[in-house]
Amino acid sequence: MMKCFPLFLMLFTAAAWAGLRPMTELELEKMVRGSRQPQPNEVGCSYWGVAGFNRWNWNAFKNDPQSERAVTVSNEKGLNFKGTHGLGSLTLPADWPQADAVGSGIRCSLYGYGIFDLARPRLSDRLFAAIAEPNRRPSHKWRGVRTAPRIKKNQ
Predict the structure, then answer these.
(1) Do the Cβ atoms of 36 and 47 come closer than 8 Å?
(2) Radius of gyration of the chain (CA)
(3) Which own/partner pairs from 148-154 qualify as long-range (CB within 8 Å, at least 24 positions apart)?
(4) pLDDT per residue as tens digits for the range 116-129
(5) Which ranges in the chain belong to alpha helices (H)?
(6) CB of 61 within 8 A of CB of 112?
(7) 6-28: per-residue pLDDT in tens?
(8) Residue ranges of domains in the chain
(9) 3-state SS assignment for residue 68
C-alpha cells in the first residue's frame, strides 16, 4: 500500500527540488492586485493576467475551487520565512512550512457550504490565513515562485 502524503507537502518537495520557493500571501496580493489600491470585498481578475485569476475564475459559481495556499504572516512560523529557495533536493528548507502545514494558510477563500454565503472568492479574505491544513483539497491551489535576482548597477 502506498503512503499518502499531504498534497501541499508533495508540492513543496517538488518546488524544493526545482529550486523554487512557496509564495507569501503578500506576494499573492501583489500578483492579483498589481498597483491597484485595496478595496473592501475586492473581487477581480489579475492585474498581471496570471493564470487562475482571470475573469472566468473570479466570476465562477459558488463552490468552484478558487483558493490559494501561501506562506502566512499570521503566525510565528510564517513570519520567520526568509524566502529560501529549494536547493535541488527533496529536503524542505528549515524556514518553509513542514508536514504539519504550520506557516502556510489559505487565501482567496471560497465560501458556500451554508456557513458563509459569499458568492465569489475575495482577495481581501483572510479568514483562513492562519489555518494549518495539510490535507488534500482540490480547492487549495499552490504556486512555486523564484525571487528575481538583484541587478547590479555599473559604477
Answers:
(1) yes
(2) 16
(3) none
(4) 555 556 677 777 78
(5) 7-18, 25-33, 55-58, 76-79
(6) no
(7) 566 777 888 899 999 999 988 98
(8) 1-143
(9) strand
